[in-house]
Write a structure and sequence with these properties.
The complex is a heterodimer of chains A (345) and B (620). Chain A is of the alpha/beta class. Chain A contains eleven helices and twelve strands. Classes of the chains: A alpha/beta (345), B alpha/beta (620). At the A-B interface, strand 1, strand 2, helix 2, helix 4 and helix 10 of A face helix 1, strand 9, helix 9, helix 11 and helix 12 of B. Bound molecules: thiamine diphosphate, iron/sulfur cluster and magnesium ion. Iron/sulfur cluster binds next to loops of chain A.
């Protein structure tokens, strides 16, 4: 295995340019994926990890073209399976920084099973879920995050299936790090990436991403300057959850043990919920994830919902490997002989 | 009065009972002492898919057959000389295989009217003379065991459970097997329960003493040790040999191994075994499904490990897309398919060879994958090394097709000298492999080795070799995405040529044609080696001439395969499927291969195959 110890502690002096590959970017002009790519290229130098020690693994979809545009190691795999490949890589090579890029169809339809199991295992992976609430690459069918009644080519009378809330799903799947951000808010996106990158274990980051061809405006309510202040609920660890024009609204605990949105003026300041991303119990994070309206995305919290410590799967496996090897490596001759041999002269 | 001892050259014993009667364990123990005694042997466990089918019913019957001899043998045998039947169901399910004159050791205690009705006996076969052409030994195995264990402070149920040890003791006496191995085994198993341990030991000896004292058995039998090649032997099953072969391959290549797997019969034991050997650098990962298992293996291969996935036919179906990805990525990967009866869930615990064409063609697009198959339980060891050799040298997924019979069957294995195992080291790429016109250099992930056509294995963590690969078609050389028609045509042919070229690294197909002038060739693959070999011996013993060849490599075939086939007037292909190898041979070599096909979930019987071969010889 390569020795990276020489680079630890030294400033690699990498810049965004160092992460731009020579491949022509092939997304539609105006696609939200561009902004995420640019933010990522700007962010990666901050990690001060040599390019050769980073790997981006993706599935299939527009978003999954992402690895081609970076200069790290990368694999564009098959639909829905990127978490499986990334798991095998991360578990057998704990020295690498492994990222997964996936779409709402890739991660939540065909790859739903892998996503939930990866989260509960807490493999050391950073998963970026580009949620455009549509199948982009296959030209516009509804996805598992599309709002009910969505009219698309495959649902001319409107979709019939209730959507997933990806963060509720992740929290239910025992995720240790769950966050949401928006393609067009570069500063917020970078803050969330930073938190995700340093998390030990699986970090799931949902990114609201506009597909201007097949689902344009899906996130207008949380992007449009006229509406976003009232539609978005920023979560900051340790801060009271207040949002809206001039802090008009806030989140408090309701009588059922969940949370509710009220007018700030009508409650005692001390009753406003203080966001605790490190709470062991995911119940409040889950309640917060339920605030966003599944149809309109009004009242969508953004930021880090949950970030708790739990040993990563790869860490635990490395520990077992070390324990098994404590008495030195196995002896093949002895192994294959077993306990019961006989000799023929 | 000392009893008479009769010399035999070989014996076939079948233990049959209810799933709960411990027949597999009894068979295993008898096998171990037979192996230590120095006989050649071959076993055939045959158990139901249900963990506990209703007691006393036909579907609940579990059997274990052992063939042992004073000479080298190839199969677990066709027809038992002795059947131990622990209940009416066991008798009913197995009697059809037992030739007249054979010994039947029958546990009379279980022949109650209730048990008889359960399996449709209107009258007890012990009373209606229907067994008169057999040598019947009616013994109250259960009551004798309970009687022998009266002094112990254990429940009646626990005492009853030791009846398999009583039976084992009796059979051990009958065939003069030592009890020490079984005593050691019981000590390990029940070391923490001294009362149960003592009871089982007592039952074992009570069975032995019963043989010695009862008038029912007037003779004992002796099968002398076999004259096997000199060296140290152990007994081994296919799944264990395969696991050891994989561990050996990891050591011989100097590469860590990663197994991604999802439990499935009859492959799970490989996962269980490998998970015990982390001290050999083996990582095992039980995934959420078979797709995740192979995905993780591909990820590990990408990172520089030997990626491995183990499964059976239904799992292969799920892995197909990922195998195609590995073909496109050109990364090493070993896919082990321990075949079972199909289609669908099929016969989980029975053997079959019907996944050959799935392995060969079961992917979208032109996606060639090398295929190899072991021929006997111990051969699984060598086959595993060969699979890893091809995967790592040619950067390709490789299929290893074992089957349920090889997986669970046992035979003596002449232990290899670890120092003599093949060297499987391969090099990772470490530097640029392309020089531009301006003199600058770069890394191109799809520039091939001119000899093997393998592309470089450039693992993450290697500075300067950062590159992107994927399932989309790649431009020859650079590996960039390419939709160019000529490039696609070239890449499809290159991938095929790489697999075809593996034939340059494998030995020619050997033919066993003792007289050199046989007209008929019988050719097979996989676990049919034993029955075909035994049948060929029988034919030759009768004065017939037959040539035998057996394929380890099914894709690509050895270079001389066509010549071998065309050399003979008639070619017979016995397979436990409806003619899959025959189809490939016909297609590749335009040879009029005659299939002989059975899909009964059981290995071929040598006698049957002998008749088939003789018929073809007669018509040649
Ligand atoms: C096995 C398989 N089934 C279907 C497809 C077709 N397919 C490609 S991408 C895709 C959906 C992509 O949607 P999403 O994951 O949301 O990605 P986006 O394009 O929106 O970024 C589908 C159905 C495929 N490539 N593979
Ligand atoms: S189809 Fe939509 S998601 Fe895909 S590249 Fe175009 S704009 Fe982006
Ligand atoms: Mg999408």
């Amino acid at each position: 295995m390569p020795d990276t110890s020489a680079t630890v502690g030294t400033d690699l002096k990498l810049t965004a340019k160092d992460f731009k590959s020579d491949q022509e970017v092939r997304w539609c002009p105006g696609c939200g994926d561009y902004a995420i790519l640019a933010a990522m290229q700007a962010f990666l130098p901050e990690l001060n990890i040599p390019r050769e020690d980073m790997v981006f693994v993706s599935g299939i979809g527009c978003s999954s073209r992402f690895p081609y545009y970076l200069t790290t190691y990368g694999m564009h795999s098959i639909h829905g399976r990127a978490p499986t490949i990334a798991t095998g890589l991360a578990v057998s090579r704990p020295d690498l920084s492994v990222w997964v890029v996936t779409g709402d169809g890739d991660a939540l339809s065909i790859g739903g099973n892998h996503l939930i199991h990866t989260l509960r295992r807490n493999v050391n992976l950073k998963i970026l879920l580009f949620n455009n609430r549509i199948y982009g690459l296959t030209k516009g069918q509804y996805s598992p995050t599309s709002e009910l009644g969505k009219i698309t080519k495959s649902t001319p009378m409107g979709s019939l299936d209730y959507p997933f809330n990806p963060l509720s799903l992740a929290l239910g799947a025992e995720a240790t790090f769950v966050a949401r951000t928006i393609d067009s808010d570069r500063k917020h996106l970078l803050d969330v990436m930073r938190a995700a990158a340093t998390h030990e274990g699986t970090a799931l980051v949902e990114i609201y991403q506009n597909c201007n061809i097949f689902n344009d405006g899906a996130f207008d309510i949380v992007k449009n300057p006229a509406t976003k202040e009232n539609a978005l609920i920023p979560l900051v660890h340790g801060e009271p959850i207040i949002f809206g024009t001039d802090g008009s609204h806030c989140v408090i605990r309701d009588k059922q043990g969940g949370v509710e949105i009220v007018e700030t003026a009508l409650v005692d300041h001390d009753d406003i919920l203080i966001h605790n991303a490190h709470a062991e119990d995911p119940a409040t994070a889950f309640a917060l994830s339920r605030l966003s309206d599944p149809q309109t995305l009004n009242n969508s919290p953004i930021g880090v919902f949950r970030s708790v410590e739990r040993p990563s799967y790869d860490h635990l496996m490395s520990d077992q490997m070390a324990k098994a090897n404590a008495k030195g490596p196995g002896d093949l001759s002895e192994l294959i002989r077993g306990k019961d041999t006989w000799t023929v002269e | 009065m000392p009893k008479k001892t009769v010399q035999l050259d070989r014996v076939i014993i079948r233990f049959a009972g209810d799933s709960g009667d411990g027949m597999q364990l009894t068979g295993d123990q008898f096998t171990s002492s037979t192996a230590s005694f120095g006989n050649d042997l071959s076993t055939l466990p045959d158990f139901p898919a249900e963990i506990r089918a209703p007691a006393g019913t036909l579907p609940g019957v579990s059997a274990f057959q052992l063939h042992f001899a004073d000479h080298d043998i190839l199969t677990p045998g066709d027809a038992p000389n002795v059947l131990v039947a622990m209940n009416p169901a066991a008798l009913k399910a197995n009697l059809k295989d037992v030739p007249r004159g054979a010994d039947l050791i029958i546990n009379t205690d279980e022949f109650t009217s209730r048990n008889l009705t359960k399996v449709g006996y209107e009258q007890s076969p012990l009373d209606d003379n229907s067994l008169e052409s057999y040598n019947v030994h009616p013994i109250g195995l259960t009551s004798l065991t309970i009687g022998a264990l009266k002094e112990f402070d254990i429940s009646k149920k626990e005492a009853e459970r030791a009846k398999n040890m009583f039976a084992l003791g009796l059979l051990s006496w009958l065939y003069d097997r030592q009890l020490e191995g079984t005593e050691r085994f019981l000590n390990e198993k029940f070391g923490k329960k001294p009362e149960i341990l003592a009871a089982n030991l007592k039952a074992l000896h009570a069975g032995w003493n019963y043989g010695e004292t009862t008038e029912d058995f007037s003779v004992r039998y002796e099968v002398k040790p076999a004259k096997l090649n000199s060296g140290t032997y152990r007994n081994i099953s296919g799944n264990l040999a395969l696991s050891y072969g994989l561990i050996a391959a990891s050591r011989q290549s100097g590469l860590p191994m990663f197994l991604g797997s999802y439990p499935i019969t009859p492959a799970s034991d490989i996962l269980h075994e490998l998970s015990k050997h982390k001290d050999f650098g083996i990582r095992t990962y039980q995934a959420e499904d078979e797709i995740a298992g192979i995905g993780a293996a591909i990820g590990a291969s990408y990172g520089g490990a030997i990626g491995l996935t183990t499964t059976s036919g239904p799992g292969v179906a799920l892995k197909s897309e990922a195998i195609g990805l590995a073909v496109a990525l050109e990364l090493p990967l070993v896919v082990i398919d321990v075949q079972r009866g199909g289609p669908s869930t099929g016969l989980p615990t029975k053997t079959e060879q019907a996944d050959l064409l799935q392995a060969m063609f079961g992917r979208n697009g032109e996606a060639p994958v090398p295929i190899i198959a072991p021929r006997s339980p111990s051969d699984c060891f060598d086959a595993a090394l060969e699979a890893v050799r091809i995967a790592t040298k040619y950067r390709t997924p490789v299929f290893l097709l074992s089957d349920g019979y090889l997986a669970n069957g046992q035979e003596p294995w002449l232990l290899p000298n670890v120092e003599d195992l093949p060297d499987l080291h391969v090099e990772f790429a470490s530097e640029h492999n392309y020089t531009n016109e301006d003199g600058t250099t770069e890394f191109r992930p799809f520039i091939r080795d001119p000899e093997t056509l393998a592309r470089p294995w450039a693992i993450p963590g290697t500075p300067g070799l950062e590159h992107r690969i994927g399932g989309l078609e790649k431009a020859d050389g650079t590996g960039h995405i390419s939709y160019d028609p000529d490039n696609h045509d070239r890449m499809v042919r290159l991938r095929q040529a790489k697999i075809d070229g593996i034939a340059n690294s494998i030995p020619n197909l050997e033919v066993d044609d003792p007289t050199g002038d046989a007209d008929v060739l019988v050719i097979g693959w996989g676990s049919t080696y034993g029955p075909i070999g035994a049948a060929s011996r029988l034919v030759r013993k009768n004065g017939g001439k037959v040539a035998q060849a057996h394929l380890r490599h099914l894709n690509p075939f050895p270079h001389n395969t066509g010549d071998v086939l065309h050399h003979y007037k008639r070619v017979i292909v016995p397979e436990m499927n409806l003619g899959q190898l025959a189809l490939l041979l016909r297609g590749r070599f335009l040879v009029d291969a005659i299939g002989y096909n059975q899909v009964r979930g059981m290995p071929f019987k040598a006698e049957e195959l002998k008749d088939v071969i003789e018929d073809v010889i007669a018509s040649a």
